[in-house]
Design a protein that fits this description.
There is one protein chain. A hairpin with a 2-residue loop joins strand 3 and strand 4. This protein has about 120 residues and is an alpha+beta fold. Strands 1-5-4-3-2 form a 5-stranded mixed sheet. Helices cover about 30% and strands about 15% of the residues. Bound molecules: protoporphyrin IX containing FE. The site of protoporphyrin IX containing FE has 20 residues, from helix 2, helix 3 and helix 4.
Length: about 120
Amino acid sequence: MVEEEKDNSLVETSKASPKMYTLADVLEHTKNDSCWIVIHDKVYDVTKFLDEHPGGEEVLLEQAGGDSTEGFEDVGHSTDAREMMKEYFIGELVEEDRKNTKDTGPKPWATESTSTEK
Ligand code: HEM
């Protein structure tokens, strides 16, 4: 069963300025008791997600502490996956550690596959 999302005031901080991290900060979280990854210069704490990731915890742990943009985009993650990410967003990389990769959104075929026409 999928856990219902409980509204536990987990912040609507999109307007507030995000927390800033360096790659060195991220590198301190490479284990399954604390696992951070970087996608498009954004930092995600996926510790709680390791068990739930449809692609398995191994791929996440492999990328932990570093930039996983390429791996993430190669898979062609769906719109759903991109929605889920927001839950794990904890901050952004400081300017000097950014790669400035462009987030081009889900691949067309990844979006289509999840839409169930009513
Ligand atoms: C917070 C970040 C991530 C989230 C929320 C996430 C979520 C998901 C979801 C929902 C799926 C199922 C397919 C889909 O809906 O697209 C999936 C599949 C997959 N993910 Fe991720 N993912 C994340 C990061 C990553 C990263 C960094 C990698 C590898 C570098 C990765 C590798 C994979 C692979 C290989 C699959 C395919 C599994 C299969 O089809 O058998 N994911 N992910």
